[in-house]
Design brief:
mainly alpha, 2 domains, 5 helices
Length: 106
């Protein structure tokens, strides 16, 4: 029951999270509707040189989160630092999938 009352108990965080979800759905919809050779950013990401872009992104991700996650205290997954680790996990996964897609799709 408490989950259904969040919109009334904390309207500002609920509104912000709703806005973030709407933006994410818009981005996903735009990406799904773009066909091969559609927008300019699609051509840049799908060209044969995209493997270099994703390689540099992966190196920057590994160095960046490698340094950041070593500086934070290791106090568990239920802390804000655990959330930072989860963000690192998801972003790394998508960067690596982009790299694999760029290399295999060539």
């Amino acid at each position: 029951m408490q989950l259904f009352l969040v919109a009334f108990q904390q309207p500002i965080p609920f509104g912000i999270s709703t806005l973030v979800v709407a933006v994410m759905i818009g981005i996903i919809l735009k990406a799904a509707l773009s066909s091969e050779g559609g927008a300019g950013w699609v051509r840049r990401v799908t060209n044969p040189n995209a493997k270099f872009l994703f390689t540099f992104l992966f190196i920057a991700w590994a160095v960046g989160f490698g340094i950041v996650l070593q500086l934070v205290p290791h106090s568990g997954a239920s802390t804000p630092y655990g959330a930072l680790g989860l963000i690192a996990l998801f972003t790394g996964f998508f960067i690596m999938m982009g790299l694999l897609w760029a290399v295999i799709g060539e």
